[in-house]
């Protein structure tokens, strides 16, 4: 990236950060001079304006700023609900790079002219996101493939944006004695970006999940063609199907949406609770179903290894919520890595009560609905919980997304039912 472009990005980030800082601090300073404290509910309009400013910046700069907004939108335990609602609109789709740029990257990475590897290579991408875009192609032996190509300047953009955001976080923490924990979030984002930029790691993750489901004909993970893949180019089997949320199309194919959902839930329960390793981005653009009922899982750039015993701790938490066994509940929260500022574990029971109160039936029956997870994170923001494990946040987000998919299909994403019922064939 050229120096002028780096400076412009830095100026835009700094200007937006100054505006957001002023939105909060100038009114609070004025009120405090008069001895008046601002009540949390009074901040809702400010949260909305600030989130809108940040979203506008992300849509302008793209790249890492898109990822940062997506990361914020997953941390309802830290940020106000107005931020979550506004920033979860921040989708990955970006204008694609021109074909000549893509050609140069592919030929440089593979060390051969394009026509020495592919008999056909579509010039128009079938998908584009903040870090890469995907093209339909055909290998010389006739196999149809999807080729994921990383943008040539993305590493420079990432370095610039991360440096800018780190600078903003430090300035913010200097002026605010009780800052939001933005630097840890930024470090987490940096780790995730490192994962997503390494296509060899993504290929390894895809192979690992494919091996996990090698005995299940109802799960499809595209094959990776290693001979034509590098850290910046990923060539994989081209697969197609019905988008997982298209209920009518699923029914038109002669499939039962409830059975499709049961298969999907089984896949994620097996990854999270049994294997301790999962694809952590189950949005509808990454999940499809074939006319024969196979669930296709795509994009393993963000895949996570869970700590030893995490699956057992999560199961214990679900069972304790269902039976409302308070001592088991406290033990499960503690084993999952929750910590209290005061050491009073009674706060976990209060959080659990609030969660369960937002379930559809007023009792936990195995489904982590979006309302339940929202209530969990709202309670965490209000109660004296000092540390919420990022792995739990990621898993809670996954089950919340699966619950949303379930509602699109007119069904429920019941984790316990998926555990007891096995796969679609029992």
Question: What do these coordinates show?
Answer:
With 426 residues, the protein is α+β, with helices and mostly antiparallel strands. The protein folds into three domains: 3-90 and 155-190, no CATH class; 98-151 and 198-239, Phosphorylase Kinase, domain 1 (2-Layer Sandwich); 240-426, no CATH class. It has 16 helices and 13 strands. The chain has helices at residues 3-33, 44-61, 64-73, 81-87, 99-110, 154-175, 182-197, 199-212, 247-252, 257-275, 310-323, 326-335, 346-357, 370-382, 390-408, 415-421, and strands spanning 118-121, 127-128, 132-139, 144-150, 219-220, 233-237, 242-243, 277-279, 287-289, 295-297, 303-305, 339-340, 385-387. Strand 9 (287-289) and strand 10 (295-297) form a beta hairpin. Helix 1 runs antiparallel to helix 2 (44-61). The longest helix has 31 residues, at 3-33. Mean pLDDT is 85; it is low at 422-426.
**How many distinct domains?**
3
Helical content, roughly? 40-55%
Terminal CA distance reads 54 Å
Helix-strand string: HHHHHEEEEHHHEEEHHEEEEHHEHHEHH
**How many E-type strands?**
13
Structural class, judged by helices and strands?
Answer: alpha+beta
Strand content: 5-15%
**Which consecutive residue ranges, at least 5 long each, have pLDDT under 50?**
422-426
Q: Based on Cα principal axes, name the global outline.
A: globular
| Oligomerization | single chain
Q: Averaged pLDDT, please?
A: 85
Report the total helices.
16
Strand count, sense and barrel status of the largest sheet are: 5 strands, antiparallel
**In angstroms, what is the radius of gyration?**
23 Å
């Amino acid at each position: 990236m050229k120096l002028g472009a780096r400076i412009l990005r830095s100026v835009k980030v700094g200007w937006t950060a100054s505006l957001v800082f002023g939105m909060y601090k100038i009114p609070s300073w004025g009120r405090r001079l008069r001895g008046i404290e601002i009540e949390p509910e009074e901040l809702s309009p400010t949260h909305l304006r600030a989130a809108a400013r940040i979203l506008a910046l992300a849509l302008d700069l793209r790249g890492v700023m898109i990822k940062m907004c997506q990361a914020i939108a997953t941390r309802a335990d830290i940020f106000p609900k107005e931020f979550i609602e506004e920033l979860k609109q921040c989708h990955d789709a970006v204008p694609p790079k021109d074909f000549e740029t893509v050609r140069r990257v592919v030929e440089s990475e593979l060390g051969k002219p394009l026509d020495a590897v592919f008999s056909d290579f579509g010039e128009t991408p079938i998908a584009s996101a903040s870090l890469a875009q995907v093209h339909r192609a055909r290998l010389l032996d006739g196999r149809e493939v999807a080729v994921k190509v990383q943008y040539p300047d993305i590493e420079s953009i990432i370095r610039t944006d991360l440096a800018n955001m780190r600078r903003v976080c430090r300035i913010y923490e200097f002026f605010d004695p009780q800052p939001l924990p933005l630097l840890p979030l930024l470090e987490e984002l940096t780790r995730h970006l490192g994962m997503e930029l390494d296509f060899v790691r993504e290929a390894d993750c895809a192979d690992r999940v494919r091996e996990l489901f090698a005995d299940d004909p109802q799960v499809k993970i595209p094959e990776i063609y290693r001979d034509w893949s590098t850290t910046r180019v990923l060539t994989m089997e081209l697969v197609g199907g019905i988008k997982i949320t298209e209920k009518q199309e699923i029914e038109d194919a002669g499939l039962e949406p409830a059975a499709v959902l049961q298969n999907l839930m089984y896949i994620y329960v097996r990854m999270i609770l049994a294997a301790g390793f999962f694809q952590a981005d189950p949005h509808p653009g990454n999940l499809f179903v074939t006319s024969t009922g196979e669930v296709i899982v795509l994009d393993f750039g963000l895949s996570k290894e869970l700590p030893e015993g995490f699956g057992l701790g999560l199961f214990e938490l679900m069972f304790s919520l269902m039976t409302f066994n308070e001592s088991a509940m406290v033990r499960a929260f503690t084993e999952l890595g929750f910590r209290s500022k005061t050491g009073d574990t009674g706060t976990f029971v209060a959080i659990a009560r609030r969660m369960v109160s937002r379930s559809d039936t007023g009792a936990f029956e195995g489904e982590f609905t979006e309302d339940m997870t929202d209530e969990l994170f709202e309670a965490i923001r209000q109660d004296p919980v000092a540390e919420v494990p990022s792995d739990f946040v990621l898993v809670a987000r996954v089950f919340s997304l699966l619950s949303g998919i379930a509602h699109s299909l007119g069904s429920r994403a019941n984790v316990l039912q998926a555990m007891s019922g096995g796969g679609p064939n029992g």
